[in-house]
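We close this part of the discussion by returning to an individual protein. Part of our work consisted of pairing the sequence of a single chain with a tokenised description of its backbone. What the numbers capture is local backbone geometry rather than side-chain detail. The amino acid sequence and the backbone structure tokens for this protein are reproduced below.
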Amino acid sequence: MNTNIVIGVDIGTTGVRAVAYRNGSTKAYATATDEYPLFTDQSGAAEQDANSILASTIAVITRTISLLGDEANNVKGIALSAVFHSFLAIAEDGHPLTRLMTWADSRSQIYLDEMKSKTDSERLYHRTGCPLHPMYPLLKIFWMKNNQPEIFARTKWFGSIKDYVFQSLTGKRVVDRSIASGSGCYNIKNLEWDKEVLSLLSIDESRCQ
């Protein structure tokens, strides 16, 4: 029997779950969950603390490994998944400059018509797979550029909660294509950051990866 164990971690909007599976089996050998708050107000903000999510992620991984007992020595890897369309401004030292803007944050709605006037929204949708909508990081970055220009200028990377957790756990900055494709900034035809979108946002490719 294959004794190798992989831990799957799913970072959601309300909490994070870790589940340990043996390769080739659908049986969960150990599992742990943790929750974290969502901060909302009348402005349309729907934010979370990225460091709290990171701490919860580490906690559920640690608890899951602990529950495995002697089997913990057979853990060969950790697979990470995360909720789509989150947005985080990250400083050069790798720390967040803001709270995490979740998919539910609607403050950028006020710039929807302006953005539609600046680009062909149908062509944009066909290139990126994402319609112009406040859910997507594209419009959130534009909101930050106009409402938090100092933070916008200091931001080294515009990322997601998955990028931030992965970088914190491994020391490597990686953006996978699934997360990129849900940003509104990634061209799903040529598998590159969309040059027209980057120009609209006044950022270059290095700030997305």
